[in-house]
Structure formats: C-alpha cells, structure tokens
Amino acid sequence: MFSDCCRLLGRGSMFVFSHRQFTQLLDVDHSWKADLLLDIGAGDGAVTEVMDRHFRSVHVTEISPIMRRVLAGKGYEVLDAHKWMEKKELYDVISCLNVLDRCDCPLALLENMKNSLKIGTGRLILAMVLPVKQYVESGK
Ligand SMILES: C[S@@+](CC[C@H](N)C(=O)[O-])C[C@H]1O[C@@H](n2cnc3c(N)ncnc32)[C@H](O)[C@@H]1O
Question: Which domains does the chain have, with CATH numbers?
Fold first, then answer.
C-alpha cells in the first residue's frame, strides 16, 4: 500500500495537533488523567504519542499490518480494526484523525464510535480534510 511505503520511509507522519492544542481541545490541564483512549486508524502512532500520557491504557486500530507492528512496538494494545466494537469497551476519548475519508464504511465507523464512548463524559476527537474526498486504499 502507498501509505505503508511512506511510513516505512519515515515520510508519512502527520502533524495534527500539539500537546498544548490537545489539552485546549479537551479543556483539561497538563495533569489530567483518564482511563482509556482509543485511537482509530492510528497510523505510525505519532499523533497517539501526543495524547498517550493522559491515559492509563491506550488502544489503537489499524488496517495496515506494517503499522500494526509499529504500534505494538510502541506498547499500544492493537485491536482488530473490524471487530474492536465487539469488546463493548467504553472509552473516555476516541480519536479518529484523518480516517473517515480513508475507510470504506465511514457512517458505520461513526456509529460504532458514538456507541463506544462513556455515557455523558466520553469525547470524540475527529479530524477531517475538507472538502471530503474519499480515498480508500483497502476495502470496497
Ligand atoms: C491519513 S492516515 C492517518 C493516520 C493517523 N491517524 C494520523 O492522523 O497521523 C489514515 C490511516 O487510517 C488507516 N485506516 C483506514 N481505514 C481504516 C479502518 N477502517 N480502521 C482502522 N484504520 C483504518 C490507514 O491504514 C491509515 O494508516
């Protein structure tokens, strides 16, 4: 896959937000800590690393086998990209950064993320490039 090649060559890491911008987004301070983060389509985990210090556990998903290995090497729990919702885990924060336009079932993904947030307190962080132009490397 094109994205695998980029990441392997160290050319694919993206800047989405700084640590300061992340805390501003959530309206928390530097010492804020929660239980569980799920980063959907985490890529090489560069953005996951900006968020991970605030969580006791970090789960990630990826459809790229190469990126799954990279993410496991960073110590994250890598869940099956198509079955993670079956665990019925509830998350404090779910991040889905530049993935909705890369996956073949964006509406189902949105629904699954909504159903997997802690009721009342769970927060979803979405990043999307606008205008939306679907570019699916793997899937239908
Ligand atoms: C543009 S990259 C974004 C990576 C990372 N979130 C970031 O912001 O740097 C999109 C990633 O989503 C992954 N992806 C696409 N569809 C997915 C799905 N259904 N579940 C999990 N990951 C997916 C791709 O393999 C790719 O690594």
Answer: 2-10+33-127 (3.40.50.150)
| pTM greater than 0.85 (yes/no) | yes
CB-count burial class (<10 Å; 0-12, 13-18, 19+) for 74 = middle
Residue 64 Cβ contacting ligand 1 at under 6 Å: yes
In the numeric block, the tokens 């605030």 are attached to 54
Q: Is the minimum distance from the CB of 14 to ligand 1 under 6 angstroms?
A: yes
User: 93: burial class by Cβ within 10 Å (0-12, 13-18, 19+)?
Assistant: buried
For residue 24, the CA-to-ligand 1 centroid distance in Å is: 24
Per-residue confidence of the chain (140 residues) as pLDDT tens digits? Answer: 666 776 667 666 789 999 999 999 999 999 999 999 999 999 999 999 999 999 999 999 999 999 999 999 999 999 999 999 999 999 999 999 999 999 989 999 999 999 999 999 999 999 999 998 888 877 66
Find the 21 Cα to ligand 1 centroid distance in Å: 21
**CB 36 near ligand 1, within 6 Å:** no
- 78 CB within 6 A, ligand 1: no
